[in-house]
Structure formats: structure tokens, C-alpha cells
Amino acid sequence: MRIATRKSPLALAQARLVATRLGEFFGLPVELLPMSTTGDRQAQWSLEKQGGKGLFTTELEEALISGEADLAVHSAKDLPGRTSEKLIIAGYLPRADPRDVLVLRSGVAHPGSEASPRPAPSSPCQKNGALTLATGSPRRRGQLALLFPEASFCEIRGNVETRLEKVASGFAVPGGAPASATAPPSAPAAPATPSAADALHTAPPPAAAAATASAGGRIPVDATVLAAAGLARLGIRTWPGLEFRPLDFGEMVPAVGQGAIAVQTRIDEAARYAPILDPATARAVRVERAFQAALDSGCQTAFAAHAAGDSLYLFHEKTGRRRFPLAEADYHAPADTAKRLLSSLGLL
Ligand SMILES: NCc1[nH]cc(CCC(=O)O)c1CC(=O)O
């Protein structure tokens, strides 16, 4: 069996999870077929804003259709609203922690740190105590603006480890300028040793930092947001110079599909993969995807839907965060549920 996957460290980790389950269940050799997608090749774009067009999926789907691969593995979050009609999402692995995590440079004062009696030292990057938050995602930006009304925002790009290193060092590339192949080299894949990280964290001093910011065209950042599931799959539980604070659904509604790994196959072969897939995850993600489909929202719309047990959490830039009760019957009619709730909010 051959598994088509993207080449990013996160995608490979996810494909290996599927490969392990397949190997255990079928006892057949499983091979990964790492591919680069349009989204990977266009790393200078603000990818979250370009979403919904299958930037990360089309090449994998082509490999399935041609027979080069037997399965394609995707982050459910990165699936476009409509996938290839010649293929089917056979299902999902059991969902990991779907929350987002606020990743703060250590020592940065923030509203969540008020509980601490000892005042945190203020960061050279903080203007009037307001945070500079780095995220290219309209969904995260829209919700962070509710949590941190004073914050200012900038873009951040690169894979998970690159982003962590940028926040730990206090700098990201500015939003407007495309990152090029000559962008500052990304951090080594492995977390730095504590001593190396301390050096990173304490240098450059504020004056040098300001100089670097203008000279290098980089801007200071205090924090970013990453998916807990992505961090976990990469084995990242801590990072030198950073604090991780998971955000509950009332603070940050996760993206549609966040934390779920989708397995796509040719239509007539889907059934054989059922033993490695999780029906409860499919049930929740189907509801979330129905909201995405009903809104058919442009890529710039700040929107999130997350189904958890008897609750549906929704965020939309026009309505803010909402929680609705979700009954068993609602799970059985995802499209109707989405239409009803979105209409009640005046969004349809
Ligand atoms: N946008 C990229 C992406 N797609 C899926 C994940 C994390 C894994 C998941 O949600 O399943 C991430 C990284 C992130 O947003 O932090």
C-alpha cells in the first residue's frame, strides 16, 4: 500500500501514524510517497488566506486517481470545501487535542499571566504593554483581537519549528513583503539545547534588536498560535524560551477539522479502510465541514466551527464567538443543522 503525503515534517508525521495503523491491521508493507504540492511550492504566499482551493491536496489527489498511491493523508483542516468527485474521504484517525495553543515568548506579560503575583518583565517588543501577535490566519487573528483588544498583528510563515524559533528569538518577517528563498534561515529541526536557547533568548539586547529590526526588515513578535495537535505530532511539548498556553473553546474556536487526520481513497476501496478509522471523529468533522460548505466563505472570512459532544462552537467575524447545543439528531443531518444555526445568526 502506498500513501501519498506532503513532505513537511508535520505531514510526514501524520502519514506515519496512518502507516502504522495500516501495518498493524493489514500486516502488509506500507510505503510513503512524499510529494510537494502547490501550497508547498508557493511558500511566500500567505497560505491561510489562500485556503479553500486545494492548494495542499490537488497533487495528492492526482496520485490517487492515477493509481500511483492507494491512500492520501491530509490534515482535515487543510482540506478544501469540495474534494475530487472521483475520490472519497474514507474517514479520519481518532481526533487529537483540537485546541489552539498560545505560544508566548517567556517573560512577556499577557492577560493570562495576571494570576502570577510576580509582575513579568516587560518585553522590548511590547508597545504600551500591548502584545504583537504573529499569525496569518484570519480565524486566529479575529479571535485573538477579542482576547487581546490592544494587540497588533503581523504575519508569520514557515513550518511549525520555524515559527517557534521566530517567536523565541522575538522576530518575524513583516506581513507585506514576500518571504524569499533568501529569507533568514529557518531554525534547525531539532530543538536547541537549553544553553543555546538561553543565548538566543537573551540576545540581541533591545538596542541591537531595534537595529536588526530595521536593517533586516524584520519586526518584533511576542506570541503566535499553533494547533496543539501539530505540536504533539512533532513531539514538541516545550521549547526553550517559550511558554505554551492551550486555549479552551470559549477563548479560541478551533478550525474546522483541526486535530483530525483525513484518509482519502478511491471510492470503491474506501470500505476496506474502515478498521483503522474513527466514526466519532467523522461524525464531528462532518458537522463542522457542513458549516464550512454552507457559508462557502471566501478565504478572507474569519470563521471557525468545532463540534464537541453536545456543543457546537462557532466563530464568525460578524457575530463573534457563539456556543449552541448540539443534539444527536443534529449530527445525523449536518447540512440542515448548519443552515438552521447560520440562518439564526443572519449569516445565510
Ligand atoms: N495550517 C497548517 C496546519 N494544518 C494542520 C495543522 C495542525 C494539525 C491539525 O490541526 O490537525 C497545522 C499547523 C497549525 O495550524 O498550527
Automatic annotation (TrEMBL):
GO terms for biological process: heme biosynthetic process. Residues 109-136, 175-205 are annotated as: Disordered. Its EC number is 2.5.1.61. Signal peptide: none annotated. Its cofactor is dipyrromethane. Residues 1-170, 220-270 form the Porphobilinogen deaminase N-terminal domain. Keywords: Porphyrin biosynthesis, Transferase. It is an enzyme of class 2 (transferase). PANTHER family: PORPHOBILINOGEN DEAMINASE (PTHR11557:SF0). Belongs to the HMBS family. It catalyses: 4 porphobilinogen + H2O = hydroxymethylbilane + 4 NH4(+). It comes from Cephaloticoccus primus. Pfam families: Porphobil_deam (PF01379). GO terms for cellular component: cytoplasm. Coiled coil: none annotated. Pathway: Porphyrin-containing compound metabolism; protoporphyrin-IX biosynthesis; coproporphyrinogen-III from 5-aminolevulinate: step 2/4. This is hydroxymethylbilane synthase. Tetrapolymerization of the monopyrrole PBG into the hydroxymethylbilane pre-uroporphyrinogen in several discrete steps.
